[in-house]
Design a protein that fits this description.
- The protein is 4% helix and 62% strand.
- The chain is mostly beta strands.
- Strand 2 (41-61) and strand 3 (69-93) form a beta hairpin.
């Protein structure tokens, strides 16, 4: 790869997810003249998502052991599945904005490398489970 520069992506990570929300106590909010209605109020949510990261891998030539040299560089997309439970509140800000605050806990399957075989090319990804804590503050533009 002499004479060429590695091309990097502008965005190195992202996420794809799907979630469900249950807006609770809507009738109580209406009786006390508090925020209620479509996509407003306090909620409980369950969200399943996959975080995607672009990782640079160095592949080594093992024929030069014990001093392996870099053979090539690869870019791979690495996925981390995540399942979260949230409590949150969502309110309208004016006519065209929604404010959303939520906090929650979850479990994530994080990729890991096999430290005993640093110079061995592995096509299989190993995962370990870890806890996750999230606090989110979001602003949505709506019509």
């Amino acid at each position: 790869m002499f004479g060429t520069r590695d091309k990097e992506a502008l965005v190195h990570s992202g996420a794809l997810g799907l979630g469900l929300r249950y807006y609770y106590n809507q009738a109580g909010h209406e009786q006390h003249n508090r925020a209620h209605g479509a996509f407003q109020g306090n909620y409980l949510a369950l969200e399943a998502l996959t975080e995607l990261d672009r990782i640079r891998y160095f592949l080594y030539d093992t024929s030069t052991y014990p001093y392996p040299g870099a053979e090539s560089i690869e870019y791979r997309t690495q996925a981390s599945p995540l399942l979260n439970v949230y409590w949150g509140l969502q309110r309208r800000l004016g006519k065209h904005f929604l404010f959303d605050f939520n906090t929650g806990v979850g479990i994530i399957a994080k990729p890991t490398s096999d430290q005993y075989y640093l110079f061995y090319r592995r096509d299989r990804i190993l995962y370990y489970l870890d806890g996750a804590f999230a606090i989110n503050l979001r602003l949505y533009v709506v019509r």
